[in-house]
Amino acid sequence: MSNDTIYIERFQNRDENALSKLYDKYSGAIYGVILRMCRNEEAAQEILQETFMKAWDKSHLYDASKGKFYTWLYRIARNTTLNFLRKDEKLIQTEDLSVYKDEGEEEGETSYVELKGALAKLDAHHQKALKLLYFNGLTHREAHEEMGVPLGTFKSYVRQAILKLRDVYTKELLILICILELLI
Amino acid sequence: MKDRKTIIESGMLEMYLLGLLPDEQVTSLEKMLAEDEVLAQKYAEIEQDFENVSLENAIQPPDFIKEDLFAGIREDYSEVRTLPREDASNEKPVKKSQTFMWIAASLAALFLVSSLWMFLQWDTTKTDLQVTQQELNTIKSQIENLQGALKDSQLLADVVKDPNTLQYALKGNDKIPGGFATAYINHEEKSAIVNVQKLPALPEDKTYQMWGDVDGEMINMGVIDKSKDVVILQYIDEATSLNITIEPAGGSDHATVSQLVTNVYL
Q1: Which residues are bridge partners to B182 per DSSP?
Q2: What is the pTM of this model?
Q3: Closest by Cα among A58, A51, A92 to A75
Q4: Which of A58, B17, B24, B154 has its CA 20 to 30 A from that of B262?
Q5: What is the ipTM of this complex?
Q6: How many residue contacts between A and B have a Cβ separation below 8 Å?
Q7: Which top CATH class is A1-114?
Q8: A65 touches chain B (CB under 8 A)
Q9: CATH number of the domain at A115-184, out of 2.60.120.280, 1.10.10.10, 3.40.50.2000, 1.20.1560.10?
């Protein structure tokens, strides 16, 4: 049984220490998603806290046989952020439309939006397709419009991007195994 | 019920992962994931890579968030703990007779036994219901498969008997020796379908894709779904030839001409 599995079981039994371990492991990844989605640090911090609060309250609903803990946490974070953005958009639209527009464009390329790791090694269009889905919280339909390509083409970008990601990670794993074998 | 390859190529797994799959499809996909080890493995890989991507792009949140989170959780607890308790001094001492205690105990025991019996009955009924449900799902899936096959056959029959339909034979080259496909093009109805029964199976990471040549440019007519015998393709006006290539799973935006397996002039 992995450490994660033990912590998740304890987390479901309302163990604060397990929550602390899981927070330490996943809060950065979740915060990265939320911040890229809402592009507002103050709001992102509130949403991150709300996400873990919801996870704590609904921990009994997590079913390990249906997927990884991170995926479950990601879905909570994604929905919480989208709810926040919908509320925020309504407020801004009733007040001043120009504020929202300027904010989005100016903050569009701040450093935290830059992608790292294997994703950054993909072709620009593959990178963008996954970024729109994973980090911007768009649906396939919204994302293909955003990229200006037909839905079918967008889906094939996503599919190809996922295959290339697998390729990158498999190669990295092979290199790691080779290094370990050399060391032993 | 869709087959494994269609599920993988249609992007259903990614949509499920992101929580974007409609509820009615979630149940059937979860059932397939529970039954199909290869599909479950594919999903596990996508999930793992998704988690890796997220961890590589992590941004450390400020420390106070964690402190606030735990403070919030403890506050919830204390609210529960500080619920007002009944004042003991207000309680009036009640004398319970021995007889009444016996009656109450007997009733409780009776209730316990009947509850146990009802629970066992309920559990058996639940198991029966689950078995029936599973059988029903299997029958449903068989009906869907049969309906799909019938639809394919009807479609082919309709197209073939139309006098405006032109038939083209696409004989495979040395990349698919013995491979063969038949295209049916109807310029009046502007429809294009292809019978791919005789095209040999490809590895999971490859797919056949059909292209129409318009002024030297290969225009995508669609990815050929090998789980079906008859595939409807996009009709391309002014195409001078039909071409089939082998492409990476999911199809390509541009034809990989070096992977051309067959073509025919119209």
Answers
A1: B169, B195
A2: 0.56
A3: A51
A4: B154
A5: 0.85
A6: 131
A7: mainly alpha
A8: yes
A9: 1.10.10.10
